[in-house]
Amino acid sequence: MDPPSQGRARGRARGRTFPSEQHASSTPVPGAVPEQLPLVSTHGPGRGRGRGPIFPQAGPSTSAPHEVKYKPKMVFTTKCIENKKGTSGTPLDLYSNFFEVSKLPNYSFYQYCVTFEPEVDRLGERRALLRMNSDRLKGYLFDGTSLFSNIQYQSDPFVLFAQNNNKENVQISLKRTAQLDNTSSNYNQLLNIIANKCLQLMGLTRLGRNYYDPKARVLIHEFGLELWPGYITSIRQHESEVLMCSAITWKVLRHDTVFQAMENAFRQHGHNYMQPLKQAILGVVVMTHYNNRTYRIDDIDFDANPMTKFSLKDDSKSTFVEYYKKRYNITITNLNQPLLVTKVRGTAPGTTETIYLVPELCRLTGLTDEMRGNYQLMASLAKFTRVEPQKRIDSLLNFGRRLVEKREIENELSKWNMSFSPQLIKMQGRELPMETIIQGDASNPRRYESGRNVDWTAKLRSNPLLVGVKMERWIAIVPRPIQQESMSFIGLILQAARGMFMGMNDPLVHYIDNDNVGTYLDEIEKVLSRTVPDILLCMVSTNRADRYAAIKKKCCVERAVPTQVVTKRSMSNRSAMSIATKISIQMNCKVGGAPWSCHNPMKGVMVCGFDATHDSINKSRSYGAFVASLNDEFSKYFSIPFAHSRGCDISNNMATAFETALVKFRKHNDGCLPSRIFMYRDGVGDGQIDYVLNIEVEQIKATLEKHYRGTNYKFAFVIVSKRINTKFFTSGKQNPPPGTVVDDQVTWPERYDFFLVSQSVRQGTVSPTSYNVIFDNTGLDPDKMQRFTYKLTHLYYNWSGTIKVPAPVQYAHKLSELIGQHLHNEPQRDLDERLYYL
């Protein structure tokens, strides 16, 4: 249904009383309503972008694209290689979602720092005060703190005056801070501000960092959702041209408010609702419907409510109820609801400010885990968000035409002597050759090509596994209500395993009356107190997160036994035989086996992967996972997770894990150190590359020098970025084939980088992965580095096809995700040479 209109009473909600940790305060609460009132500043880091919180916070972080206060340091990594362009493979004509900035400002700009006296907190009010002086300022751009103009004003500081809504005089001072040309580090910032002005002139609405079109919203009534289409744009210097990347995006908005989520938590948990509510709400992004602004929720203040008073600018007192009625003509209906707390970047560098929000005025955005598990809901969203290449290209070309044909945009761009090409850029990529998959043991290997669609499932079923571990003693726990489905499915697992020549005995079956958490844990404890099975197969009726977490904690943290959990839905699926095949392979991997490998001419190589996940319960805690190969086939791995506080240095843990992996490798390879080492690192934003290069890489190099007794080692460190906006299309407006590599034109001139499309997708537009080689002395040329990286995407054992990233990175992701979302503790080290987290 449509969201309730502003000021509408919500019946029973009016009388709901939420208990607080103490009595609600009637004294002023630090903080204020967003954009309206003085905010409380606290010295400390602002909110970073991307995965930044797992890194030490150093200096101001990056804000929204059109309000950039801090530009990440440009890190030059092209020194790793003289020429980063490869030549191998079949040439391929491609288009990409970039528009050339065909005309650029050919004069200098001046950058001014703008201050207001008395201080003005609201961005809209700052802009309005500047507009009152537009005749003296002439053409300018303002991002909230910095003003850009091609005019050098006659005095420094340049002082202006304007009157605010209260008829008070405000002094505006412009202090010149820099002169910019196309070689200046802040030049891209200026171009992006101009581009975002164009998006505003298109009638788009800013939500968070991006711009959306609420007029083109799509309503999905059956799930209480709506989708806003929008664009992500970014301008920068690429190899030979300044280009604007333009990507289509969607914002998911929910019709329910945070207050409704509070009501649900109260109904389910009564007076103990506070902790479950925090777990559900903290970190969620909400939108205030009275001004369409988005905020990430950092806390809930149960001691404050809409009747709490705070100080206005004139030092008078107001409640939130009074303020919203006067300012927006909104009637807050529930007077007992606790207030939401969010931290935003302060006006002074390196500070944060606290804002209080009223829950019933905040719409929830995004999807919960429960929603993501709803197949019907996700299918409904995919109809709109999973855009086919042809339709995506048409949308992008329409966007390009609007940039050049809309009169208001043309006038704005002409002020800055700037223009865009309406056509997508054309380039040449290369299609790498297909990889050779190897199954069977060394005495009788079976070799075949991965195929055009890089899916070798059919061939996998009819060939023996690379390493099949005999499972002589394994146990299945079966709830009696799903006994029939469970036993039939166990039969399919055995059939699939024997078809791939796996040695798998019939399991010892333990029946339980139900699959409640307590019942399951009691039975597991009974089983493991008598014997240690090769693996424990747990059949469950539904995909309950608490039961899954309890089983994994019992077997990974308290004990050291691999487990496989199978739901009734999987057992009853029409593709049950295919699922059983995949599960039998998973089980084989968890006990030390391996289904296949790829042809690898380099011997003695160790590949490593790292990723990190934030703890879903303890928001101040994160878990990193380091994974390293131990054999030439890249089929056996050593895994080591470690916990760290968010914002703390993880380089010592990384170096320690790396050193432990070296020791393990020597143990498995007759005392020999690796001939070459490749480290693939996920979870690094642009602003963190300098830290990774100068701290993490240097500590690993120090470890290598200790073990190799000098610099006689061969090592490469590659940053993997899969959450990127770049897309590629063939000249026939289709997805590029798996193995497509692009290392020119849209890459960055200061980097040794390339894009790789390693997957084949059946629906939507395929996404490439970006690889940035920040250190490399392995001696491999770009062709071999690209080919080797592509090879590693074939070796993830949860899928008989290629994946988006190298297998060690995905293994690290799976391990850190298991711990951060379910275990919340480090698992037993007896499991560290098994892929128990598949």
UniProtKB/TrEMBL annotation:
Sorted alphabetically, which keywords does the UniProt record give?
Cytoplasm, Developmental protein, Differentiation, RNA-binding, RNA-mediated gene silencing
PROSITE patterns given in the database record:
PAZ (PS50821), PIWI (PS50822)
A Pfam entry, by short name: Piwi_N
Its primary localisation, in coarse terms, equals cytoplasm
Does Transport count among this protein's keywords?
A: no
GO MF terms here are: RNA binding
Task: Please give the GO cellular component terms listed in this UniProt entry.
Answer: cytoplasm
Q: What is this protein called?
A: Piwi domain-containing protein
